[in-house]
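Shipment paperwork, digital attachment
Item: protein structure file
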Amino acid sequence: MRRFAALFWVFSLLAFLVTMVYTHSYLPRYVNIGEGLGLEKTIYFYTVLTMITCLNGAALVLGNAFQFLPSFLMPIPKRNEWMSNALMRKKLYLNLKAWTKGLACIVNLLFIIAMLDIYDINDSDIFVPTTWMYSLGGVLLSAWFVTYYFWFNTLPDEESLQSM
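Attachment content:
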């Protein structure tokens, strides 16, 4: 599961970059981003790129920062069992890193949807139905937070700990 989360995260970054370059090349010089709000194309490009870089950087830092938190600050169910020995803590930290990368993947997908929506606002020739995509993104985000509880509520068995 951890490798899939990292793989999907990388693919979501690549999909974001492809969508960013595509929409940037076809957007007009002045980009309408909402009701009466607009930016120049280059400012829009670098603003979105900065936001996604900061969010993905924060996900990486957050995923790696869990190992430095004291055990009483760990935001997980069954905290005492997870912190009981070094192998359990290592498995916990690896799972938390994977979970934060999965969260970043969903945020990247939401940014892709938002960029397609802005592209649709600015180009009347092509219609991209993004309303249902926002709903799907919200469902995915909610499901990912529910997954957090189930992922960390079940403890790994001894065989999986020994195979690490």
